[in-house]
Design goal:
Blueprint: E1 3-6, H1 14-25, E2 35-39, E3 45-52, E4 55-62, E5 70-79, H2 82-92
Antiparallel strand pairs: 1-5, 2-3, 3-4, 4-5
């Protein structure tokens, strides 16, 4: 499975962060509009990322519950019906 490192931080000066990211990527920052819906599962974490009514990603990931930087392993699957998938998962996992 692919992996990434997650770091969460408080941004006290967003304009400085935007400038740094613009210089690193050589492009302008973009705002991503998305909704993450989380589901209770027996192990790991499961979320549905809704990007639009006809585009979404189901993402399973595992990461430790610790403070500071943490490594996650994950797998993703795309969908063209995120609203239908959300309803199906909600019903299927209601007992978890």
């Amino acid at each position: 499975m692919p992996n990434n490192i997650e770091v969460k931080a408080i941004a006290r000066n967003v304009s400085i962060l935007e400038s740094l990211s613009r210089n690193m990527s050589k492009t302008c920052p973009k705002i991503l509009h998305q909704e993450d819906v989380f589901f209770n599962v027996p192990h790991g974490r499961l979320k549905l990322r809704i990007v639009s009514p006809n585009k979404g990603e189901l993402i399973f990931y595992a990461r430790p519950d610790i403070t500071g930087p943490k490594q996650s392993t994950y797998c993703m699957s795309g969908t063209d019906d995120p609203i239908g998938l959300k309803e199906t998962l909600a019903k299927a996992l209601a007992g978890c």
